[in-house]
Amino acid sequence: MTRDQVRQAILNIISDIAPDEDLGAIKDEEKLRDQFDLDSMDFLDIVMELRKRFNLEVPEKDYQELVSMASSVEYLFPRLKDDELVS
Amino acid sequence: MNYDVIIIGSGLSGLAAGIRLAMFEKKVLIVEKHVEVGGLNSFYTRKHRTFDVGLHAMTNYTPKGVRTSPLGKLLKQLRFKHEEFRLCPQEMSEIRFPDKSIRFTNEFEFMEQEIAEQFPSQIDGFQKLLTHIREFNELDLDDSQKISSREVLESCLTDPVLIDMLYCPIMYYGNAAEGDMDFYQFVIMFKSLFMEGFAKPIGGMPYILKLLVDKYQSLGGELRMGAGVQSIAHKDGELQSLQLENGETLVADKVISSAGIVETLRLCRPKIVAESDLEIGQMSFIESIFVLDRMPKEVGYDKSIVFYSTEPRFKYRVPKGLTDVTSGVLCCPANFQYPEAPPEGIIRVTNQANFRLWDAMARSDYRAAKKEYRERGVNALLTYFPDFSDHIIYIDSFTPKTIFKYTGHLNGAVYGSPTKIKSGRTPVKNLFICGTDQGFLGIIGATLSGISMANLHILQAEAKSEYGRI
Ligand SMILES: Cc1cc2nc3c(=O)[nH]c(=O)nc-3n(C[C@H](O)[C@H](O)[C@H](O)COP(=O)(O)OP(=O)(O)OC[C@H]3O[C@@H](n4cnc5c(N)ncnc54)[C@H](O)[C@@H]3O)c2cc1C
Fold first, then answer.
1. pLDDT (0 to 100) of residue B440
2. What is the pLDDT at residue B465?
3. Which of B14, B20, B359, B438 has the greatest CB tally within 10 Å of its CB?
4. Contacts of residue B453 in chain A, CB cutoff 8 Å?
């Protein structure tokens, strides 16, 4: 997957777990928690979706890497770059 | 067939737990004794009309965009858009006592103003109570601390009439015990009724239930109707299997039951002795539904919901007779902000009732008693409101006996046992409870309970410990 595809994959997950949000205005550097009031349950949903969709385990100590869009892409890209995206 | 999880009951809590589990690819089955989904909040059809059983108003209403409220969290966890629930807010409700009236809307400031006007000497005490309410973490799942709400209220307010006026809606909409309630439960109810608010979905409960069932099934969840659980087998303190009333045996790693705590333990084989410590709920209600030939506003009923007492002091306890008509809840489903007026005007009246007396009646007496208490209930309403008897075109009533028959809740106890098990754990390993007896009541509460128990006891196994808190 390319960086853009990883970013899009994260966007897809957030739009599924928070269907009321307008993600067009997302600020990549800002904390997701602050932008969308995501709480610990929402972050776990993100982690569970990553497992479900990409068979990727995010250990608890790494949860902090998912704090913003930018940091999520930074963290996930090396772990997903060798995966091929089929639609 | 081996399931990851079997859920007992397709009420709101069972359906919500099912959606969460199916969403994360658990193999999940809901078994429901009845032929309709919904449990305490179902619907039924008589003479071409569909009536909601348990819906006066959905409490906890917050508008779109409020993300941290119970409704906001529920929508996110079940992945619905706010619009999908099609909620129409209330117009105005009222607490009506002799010589006193407190009106309230979905704007809490309005109610504060009413209290300041009606009870000027109490407003400082009321603010003090609000501070207690705001600072309290009612969602903590630790059961150990018990605080009497009456003690807290009496430490803030000196006028017993105001205390009773606050209790009247809160107890009617969510108290399993007589006379007093735990402060955490009071806080949940206070916020859900007054600080959040009331709304009704277009299409009523049939619509909401269909939304939930469709989502559950589209995620691969299985649902079996007419499949009552007869017993839960356990060995060495651990869950083994479920036996259905038709003799079939089902196996699952974990079971979540929404049947009630005492009801669930009674299904366990061998029997569980701890059952004796748990109280069986007592509070039940009779409700009459009057279909009118015009809208309630045309006969002088302009509020969404009225909680009333014809006596200066409000009592919440199992009546000595069949029914206590001196207090009640009056609901006009048309008086919500619907885009289109509903086809018929309906008035619903709810009073406290005694399960044991209703249940013991012979069939012919039962019919006559329903009629008699319906009329007495309407007569009591005339203390405050105009007579609508000439405009009734259809009447139906249900009693505590009906509630027991269709939901299996012992004593027809709408709010379950006064003993709540917030952790959802039972003495049997891998057997959990959700719904009413886990301590979150009402439509939104039960739904959140199903979500949080599925999170805490199943999905958390793959995640971290703070999971399951709402
Ligand atoms: C008259 C009335 C009015 C109400 N008004 C409102 C209101 O206006 N607003 C509001 O928010 N709430 C209201 N409520 C409360 C609300 O309906 C309940 O709090 C909520 O629906 C409880 O959901 P639950 O999932 O915990 O339990 P239930 O709905 O009782 O679900 C339990 C399910 O388990 C099934 N079951 C039981 N035993 C077995 C077994 N052995 N095998 C298989 N299945 C079994 C039952 O059939 C039932 O379907 C009202 C309730 C009533 C009765």
1. 86
2. 43
3. B14
4. none
SS (H, E, C) chain B: CEEEEEEECCEHHHHHHHHHHHHCCCCEEEECCCCCCEHHHCEEEECCEEEECCCCCECCCCCCCCCCCHHHHHHHHHCCCHHHHCEEEECCEEEEECCEEEEECCCHHHHHHHHHHHCHHHHHHHHHHHHHHHHCCCCCCCCCCCCEHHHHHHHHCCCHHHHHHHHHHHHHCCCCCCCCCEHHHHHHHHHHHHHHCCEEECCHHHHHHHHHHHHHHHCCCEEECCCCEEEEEEECCEEEEEEECCCCEEEEEEEEECCCHHHHHHHEECCCHHHHHCCCCCCEEEEEEEEECCCHHHHCCCCCEEEEECCCCCCCCCCCCCEEEEEEEEECCCCECCCCCCCCEEEEEEEEECHHHHHCCCHHHHHHHHHHHHHHHHHHHCCCCCCCHHHEEEEEEECHHHHHHHHCCHHHCCCCCCCCCCCCECCCECEEECCHHHCCCHHHHHHHHHHHHHHHHCHHHHCCCCCCCC
What's the domain range around A38? Answer: 3-80
Residues of A with CB under 8 A from a CB of B: 16-20, 36-37, 39-42, 44-45, 47-48, 51-52, 60, 63
Choosing from B71, B93, B258 the residue with most ligand 1 atoms within 8 A of its CB, the one to mutate for a pocket test is B258
Contacts of A41 in chain B (CB under 8 A): 73, 77, 455, 467, 469-470
B377 and B250 co-located in one domain: no
Q: In Å, how far is A66's CA from the nearest CA of chain B?
A: 15
* B332 and B367, same domain (yes or no): yes
Residue A11 sits in a domain whose CATH number is: 1.10.1200.10
User: What local confidence, expressed as pLDDT, does residue B469 receive?
Assistant: 38
Which tens digit of pLDDT belongs to each residue from B310-358? 999 999 999 999 999 999 999 999 999 999 989 899 999 999 999 999 9
Q: Which pLDDT value is given to residue B466? A: 42
What is residue B55's predicted lDDT score, i.e. its pLDDT? 83
Contact (CB<8Å) B462/A48: yes
Residues having CB closer than 6 A to ligand 1 are: B 8-14, 31-34, 39-41, 53-59, 228-229, 258-259, 285, 287, 403, 407-409, 414, 435-436, 441-443, 446
Tell me what pLDDT residue B149 has: 97
Mutation for testing the A interface, residue in B67, B76, B452, B465 having most A CBs under 10 Å? B76
State the average pLDDT for chain B.
Answer: 93
Which residues in chain B come in under a pLDDT of 50?
465-470
Report the domain count for chain A.
Answer: 1
> Does residue B286 share a domain with residue B274?
no
pLDDT at B276: 61
Contact A41 B470 (CB under 8 A): yes
Q: Is the pTM of this model over 0.90?
A: yes
